[in-house]
């Protein structure tokens, strides 16, 4: 399986299309969000977009907000196509982010649903740990150590 990681701009149509097509891969579905279109637009305009491609298809997408002042990256959206889950794709993208931002950030933060056992296991394997209990979610952190 040949997978490449990209950071070059994606058209809004492709970005939104992936998020909408992936909406039901989440529990609860993203389609239940009251301001879904505003959320997508905000991520597109304000976030850093990292994605993986296999053949012509986007198979994973991660959006991060970089806080230069406090030197962290907050990731509000991580999605891997179900056919590619369990192959370490999100780990490859996060490693790519660390490699390219390690001099600029000290930590990565993300939220994950408490009932998403596969994601929790994957994030623990990557070195993330729970820092805050937020009702149905955990805030997780990975500290970036300079080499």
From TrEMBL:
Domain of life, per lineage: Bacteria
Keyword terms, alphabetized: Acyltransferase, Transferase
Gene3D superfamilies named among the record's database cross-references: 3.40.630.30
GO MF annotation: an example: acyltransferase activity, transferring groups other than amino-acyl groups
A Pfam family assignment: Acetyltransf_1
Domain N-acetyltransferase as annotated: residue spans: 5-145
InterPro entries per record: Acyl_CoA_acyltransferase, GNAT_dom
Protein known as: GNAT family N-acetyltransferase
């Amino acid at each position: 399986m040949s997978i490449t990681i990209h950071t070059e701009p994606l058209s809004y149509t492709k970005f939104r299309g992936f998020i909408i097509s992936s909406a039901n891969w989440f529990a609860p579905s993203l389609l239940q969000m009251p301001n879904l279109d505003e959320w997508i637009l905000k991520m597109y305009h304000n976030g850093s977009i990292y994605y993986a491609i296999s053949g012509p298809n986007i198979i994973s997408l991660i959006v991060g907000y970089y806080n230069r002042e406090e030197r962290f990256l907050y990731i509000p959206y991580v999605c891997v196509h179900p056919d590619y889950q369990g192959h370490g794709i999100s780990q490859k993208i996060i490693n790519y982010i660390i490699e390219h931002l390690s001099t600029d950030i000290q930590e990565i933060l993300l939220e994950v649903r408490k009932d998403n056992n596969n994601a929790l296991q994957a994030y623990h394997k990557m070195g993330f740990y729970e820092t805050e209990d937020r009702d149905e979610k955990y805030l997780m952190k990975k500290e970036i150590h300079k080499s």
